[in-house]
Amino acid sequence: MAAPVAAPTAASFAPAMPPEAPLPMPVQDLVRWDPATGHRPVRHGRPWLARAFVFGGAALLTAYGAMQMYEVVAVSGGTTALQYVLLALFTLNFSWIALAFMGAILGFLVLLRGLKTPALPARLATRTAVVMPVYNEATARTFAGLEAMRAEIDATGHGDAFDYFVLSDSTQGDAWIAEERAFLDLRARWGAEPRLYYRHRPKNHHRKAGNIGDFVARWGGAYDHMLVLDADSLMTGACVVHLAAAMEADPDAGIIQSLPLIINRNTLFARVQQFAARIYGPVIATGLSVWSGRDGNYWGHNAIIRTCAFAAACGLPDLKGKPPFGGHVLSHDFVEAALIRRAGWSVTMLPALPGSYEESPPSLIDVAVRDRRWAQGNLQHSRIIGTAGLALASRQHFATGIAGYVASPLWLAQLVVGIALVFQTAYVRPEYFTSEFGLYPVWPRFDPVRALQLFGLTMGILLAPKFLGLALALIDGPVRRACGGAIRLVLSSLIEILLSALIAPIAMLIQSGSVFQILLGRDTGWNPQRRDDGSIPWADIVRRHRWHMALGLITGVAAFAIATSLFLWMSPTILGLVLAIPISWASGQLGLGLALKRLGLLMTPEERTPPTIAVQAGALSRRNAEAGLDDADALRALHADAGLAQAHAMMLPETAPRPRGAIDPDRALAQAKVVEADALAEAQAWLTPKERMALLHDRALLDRLTRLAP
User: Fold this and answer.
1) Burial, 186: exposed, middle or buried (Cβ in 10 Å; 0-12, 13-18, 19+)?
2) Alpha-carbon distance 470 to 22, whole Å?
3) Interhelix angle for 281-292 vs 268-279, to 10°?
4) In DSSP terms, which residues pair with 168 in a beta bridge?
5) pLDDT tens per residue across span 45-86
6) How would you class 251 by CB atoms within 10 Å of its CB: exposed for 0-12, middle for 13-18, buried for 19 or more?
7) Is the predicted pLDDT of residue 373 greater than 70, yes or no?
8) Contact, 671 vs 701, CB < 8 A?
9) Which residues contact 706 (CB under 8 A, 6 or more apart)?
10) Is residue 258 very low, low, confident or very high in pLDDT (cuts 50, 70, 90)?
């Protein structure tokens, strides 16, 4: 059993939350906002030249690609309706990769010149709240990360400018009580002025957006800024202080976003993501930062926000209708950035600022679960993109997010139409004619030489951001050596490209399925992200990917029967789908990732020499785990530790009186079961999860529980 928490005195426990300093959180109507009464975005420092380069270049490339595709399908002197469909799908897909290509070119050119991080300020004149929203997370890791960040921030000499908040929306009783145990223990170790606060919401209304909104409405008035984290976030003290100093230096700044790098990953799939984010990510992010300028975007974490700007501009309404397109806004971060920009504040990114870290899901299936929620959130933006008064760049961020998920069904449709055209050429009699008079029917033929050239152009544009990131890593001596040298760095990039190519068709079908489900009106839940390095049972992998494998086999047989050339053209897609089950299994294997690590492959500088904060957080996480923070049963912990039970009861909010005759069925059942139980073990066995949560919210039932026999 874990060591009990000492019973807090009234004096030590009273400041568990600071006095409320509310800021108004107006709920604005995104559809009916009147530009005449609102604020226009500040119009200064807009990088028109960079935007002309990126969007103009992408438009020229798309036009050239569309012309080449037309020449491919119009070789016979005429074009059928199906070929026009193929041309339209190709143009849409090509425009997406052309825009990414031009953004990467811009980022590459900027990074070649080098970006410098300013020196730390002498002092900070403002106050910042470091807020960590949690939702049924691993408590040992969450509080270890916060403790490590506090130590680093204090080491900069600016520790007095920061307070720390753990904002819990946890719906599992064990997670809730574990958080309170960790909170009380950490406050005790941080001394007389810990500046650490904890709040648990009875209902996780509006999820993370509602969690942050509740903090701003109740305590935001006491702080100039808030640094928003995720449960897996780590930020060095220097990075945090730089963000606060950047806010002080720019009175128009509303949000300043850092570029979080992935660390601490060991499974095969996670290490591939970690390598790609480190080597290719800065090129893409820098290009985005340059052309966005002060009309940037927000990714929901590892960013600092001006509290008054958030309070004045970011009250999110429920969209009309039912989910998936109605209800509360899922991907709230994009919307909050757009609204802050609309209100006149700038949204910028500091892609060269070091010391911002996060973690990633360990397997392909874990990414798919998270991606389903992101798909719904981004497609929901189709109802927000036309909101009055938004900056054009904000609309582009929405469009980019939507296109990122629509691209998968468009790619799938392009493949289907391509197969249909080849099948038509091989087996269907040409009994159709163009609208113009002709002596001969129009055969759906292709120019194979031009098609091969266009394929090469498409692949070059698609892979260019990777090659540009690799080139920068190769010419950067410290990065090159930390990645194992030039040969290992190149081999790692080839491994990443190969694995990404095999995963791409699987991801295409997964995302296409998500989009189709959303269009059919199926809502997604909000499950907590799995952040460990663990494999998935083989039966679950087979269940999730059996149809992908079956489709790959059917497509391969059909393509080979139609034409050998079609089979060869589609072989990368076919191979990825046929191997979907073993690929997904391998993606979550810790042994495969560690084997490549021992060979010095897929290495990153942060993996070769782990950041001090990551090492410290890991040690603290192991200490917390050994103390049993993630293993304790909530009811047994409260029963065994009178101090914890007293502290939990004191932290509960005052319950509003119920209307006469109103009955909470979960509380009523919990009361009946606790009254009937002779011992704690009986109550534990009888209570359902919902009844446990009802009991944990009721002081009287908690008191009765603690008096049961062990």
Assistant:
1) buried
2) 49
3) 50
4) 134, 200
5) 568 999 999 999 999 999 999 999 988 887 655 667 888 899
6) exposed
7) yes
8) yes
9) 638, 639, 642, 645
10) very high
